[in-house]
From TrEMBL:
Lineage of the organism: Bacteria, Pseudomonadati, Bacteroidota, Chitinophagia, Chitinophagales
Domain CMP/dCMP-type deaminase intervals: 1-111
UniProt protein name: tRNA-specific adenosine deaminase
Binding site for Zn(2+): 52, 82, 85
InterPro entries reported for this sequence: APOBEC/CMP_deaminase_Zn-bd, CMP_dCMP_dom, Cytidine_deaminase-like, tRNA_aden_deaminase
Reaction(s) catalysed (UniProt annotation): adenosine(34) in tRNA + H2O + H(+) = inosine(34) in tRNA + NH4(+)
Family: Belongs to the cytidine and deoxycytidylate deaminase family. ADAT2 subfamily.
Amino acid sequence: MDDEYFMRQALVQAQRAFEEDEVPVGAVVVLGGKIIARGYNQVERLNDCTAHAEMIAVTSAFSFLGAKYLTDATLYVTVEPCLMCAGALYWSKIGRIVYGTADEKNGHRRVTGPHSPFHPKTIVDSGILADECRSLMKEFFARKR
């Protein structure tokens, strides 16, 4: 199992969001080569602007582990985290973040520029299955127009 495998699992979560008419972002948290938590956007369903895929996945991971830090875990998320999610990920001290496609409009880099908002020890990788992640987002918003 590698980054593509786990990003495909995040895409499964994003597809669930898409099918529920939510912005199609999905996430999984991996520890020791196993998925310990999953999440997808549920902002509309829960009527909660904080119900992003990353927030749901890391909250589930904290509960699963009975801990507030994810230093040895990796978050796979289909779209670049927003500033709110970046803040939560900072405080989680997550070991690694892997995201599929950039979010030019709402991604954290729009605010932070080249400066990382994540914990100094967090490794960030991007571009894994970017085309698939981007296509799902484009299809969703094309249907909305």
